[in-house]
From TrEMBL:
Keyword Nuclease in annotation: yes
A Pfam family it matches: S1-P1_nuclease
Keyword terms of this UniProt record: Disulfide bond, Endonuclease, Glycoprotein, Hydrolase, Metal-binding, Nuclease
Record-linked SUPFAM superfamilies: Phospholipase C/P1 nuclease
CDD domains: S1-P1_nuclease
Membrane-spanning parts: none
Domain of life assignment: Bacteria
The organism of origin for this protein: Mucilaginibacter defluvii
Name of protein: S1/P1 nuclease
Length: 257
């Protein structure tokens, strides 16, 4: 009875990121596009931890208050509708701790030869995770509803929220292991990868925010989401998982290659 009660109390306060599967999928996809030099350097930092498994560290440590300062690194909120130039101008003067400023910071730090082994590991795990997170559209959503966490919905008749549907539920609904999922969706051409990778970080966020706006416009509070919603959006989910992985590989190749 006590255990059941704890479970009931705790489920609604979970505020996570692409769920574990989403992160592993994008991480494994990134791994498949590393150049040999980057792969070797990353192995030197992560040891036997694969990129797929390293991808979830930033969510696991949320249980330890030592790491509370990392909480805002997982998302960038945009409460106003912005054109791409408006978003670029906004981000250029952004100084708060968010996914944009931290991806920029972590990229610069990881390029430094003088970085301590401890920070190399922390920064690499965080960079991997955040690049994946920002491809979940609702990690670039409104602050006012916590990226959709406050938009209650039913998923297959169970209480959930819009953010969680996009972090986990659509992905888990496919009932694939993360390696099966990667095998199913990791089909890209070199030209496609080059196009995705050459776009700047501001464009990754713009694209993700454009999708977030579509999702906000297409939801009503307490809406019942099921097979129809899955059918409508699973391609978008998969595209964002692949893009996140491809862009993460591009960034890691640039840092370590
Ligand atoms: N998770 C918790 N708060 C969030 C927010 N404001 N935006 C996106 N994801 C979140
Ligand atoms: Zn996260
Ligand atoms: Zn999330």
């Amino acid at each position: 009875m006590f255990i059941a009660l704890v479970a009931i109390v705790y489920i609604p306060v979970q505020v996570m990121a692409w769920g574990q599967q989403g992160h592993r999928i994008s991480g494994q996809i990134a791994d498949s596009y590393l150049n040999p030099k980057a792969r070797k350097a990353i192995q030197g930092i992560l040891g036997n931890e694969s990129i797929a498994m390293a991808s979830n560290w930033a969510d696991f440590i949320k249980s330890d208050s030592t790491y509370n300062y990392l909480y805002n690194w997982h998302f960038v909120n945009f409460d106003k509708v912005m054109t791409e130039p408006e978003m670029e101008a906004y981000l250029k003067v952004d100084t708060i701790a968010d996914a944009y400023t931290k991806v920029t910071f972590l990229t610069a730090e990881l390029k430094k030869k003088t970085l301590s082994a401890k920070n190399k590991l922390l920064y690499l795990r965080m960079l991997i995770h955040i690049v994946e997170d920002i491809h979940q559209p609702l990690h670039t959503g409104h602050l006012s509803d916590k990226g959709g966490n406050d938009i209650k919905v039913l998923w297959m008749n169970n209480p959930s929220n819009l953010h969680s549907v996009w972090d986990s539920q659509l992905i888990d609904f496919q009932q694939l292991s993360y390696t099966e999922y990667v095998a199913a969706i990791n089909h890209t051409t070199a030209a496609q990868r080059a196009e995705w990778q050459k776009a700047p970080l501001t464009h990754w966020l713009y694209e993700s925010n454009q999708l977030a706006q579509k999702l906000y416009a297409d939801i009503k509070p307490d809406e019942k989401l099921s097979y129809r919603y899955n059918f409508k959006y699973i391609e978008t989910v998969n595209q964002q998982l692949v893009k996140g992985g491809v862009r993460l590989a591009g960034l890691l190749n640039q840092i370590f290659g």
